[in-house]
Write a sequence for this structure.
């Protein structure tokens, strides 16, 4: 009977775990839907900024801005986005592996003299990144930015990166994150934030802008200087939201896997419990029958 009591206790524990993982999956699903909704809300803003840039680029005017100036690469900042919380499968592990691969790639191309600064967002990646810090690899967490930051905090973060780029503390700023595709699929992505790639702006130019000329006031160059920070801010907001959606989708899949495993274990334990219970009943019946025969 002690074996039956142990099995019953394990069945109760596994059943409770299954209910917990199912509830966590529902919560993560709601958070993921919220993040994808925010991505949809961001699209009109990003399209409008790109539309203005397209109109500026079709003027064939040469734009000179310190935010698009390229210089010899001596100092690079890698802004890597992870999560504050766990229970999201291999989400943070995969990003950290890609961070190490990115650092190794820079080392192969530019050698050990390149000064690399990792700027982690999220407690999990901050903890992992601090372990690899060294003389030629600085890790600088930003205390006011986490996975729950609002748009003002992200704007402050983007402005800080721009200021450090303009002061030549960084010659390049890259963002490393998981790009949300579907609930079951996310893709690791590297986007260059600074300097802003003039070629990418030209490649993304709206073809309709050439057929709808505009008048610029005060002038195209001044407007270009004004729009570039907005472009950087929209990029930061988009990457942050992509990472948040990917984190929640990874957590949904992790909780689904945990729930499925708990259900499978629960079925096995129930089967084993029923077998032992049936065996116990059969033994008792045999003892009763044996006692009657002896009489």
């Amino acid at each position: 009977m002690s074996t039956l009591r142990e099995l019953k206790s394990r069945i109760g524990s596994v059943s409770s775990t299954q209910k917990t993982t199912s509830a966590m999956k529902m919560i993560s699903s709601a958070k993921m839907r919220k993040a994808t909704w925010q991505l949809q809300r961001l699209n009109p803003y990003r399209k409008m900024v790109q539309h203005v840039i397209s109109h500026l680029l079709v003027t064939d005017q040469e734009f000179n801005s310190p935010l698009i100036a390229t210089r010899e690469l001596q100092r690079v900042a890698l802004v890597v986005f992870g999560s504050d919380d766990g229970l999201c499968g291999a989400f943070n592990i995969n990003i950290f592996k890609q961070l190490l691969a990115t650092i190794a790639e820079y080392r192969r191309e530019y050698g050990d003299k390149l000064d690399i600064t990792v700027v982690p967002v999220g407690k999990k990646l901050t903890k992992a990144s601090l372990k690899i810090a060294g003389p030629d690899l600085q890790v600088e967490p930003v205390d006011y930015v986490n996975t729950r930051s609002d748009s003002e905090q992200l704007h402050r973060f983007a402005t800080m990166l721009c200021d450090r780029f303009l002061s030549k503390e960084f010659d390049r700023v890259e963002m490393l994150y998981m790009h949300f595709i579907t609930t079951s699929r996310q893709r690791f992505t590297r986007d260059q934030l600074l300097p802003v790639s003039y070629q990418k702006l030209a490649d993304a130019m709206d073809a309709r802008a050439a057929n709808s000329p505009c008048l610029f006031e005060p002038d195209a160059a001044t407007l270009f200087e004004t729009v570039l920070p907005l472009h950087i801010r929209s990029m930061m907001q988009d990457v942050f939201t992509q990472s948040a959606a990917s984190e929640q989708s990874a957590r949904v899949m992790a909780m689904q896997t945990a729930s499925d495993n708990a259900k499978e274990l629960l079925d096995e334990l129930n089967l084993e419990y029923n077998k032992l219970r049936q065996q116990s009943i059969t033994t008792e019946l045999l003892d009763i029958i044996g006692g009657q025969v002896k009489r």
Summary: The mean pLDDT is 85. Helices lie at 2-57, 91-110, 123-130, 151-166, 198-203, 220-294.
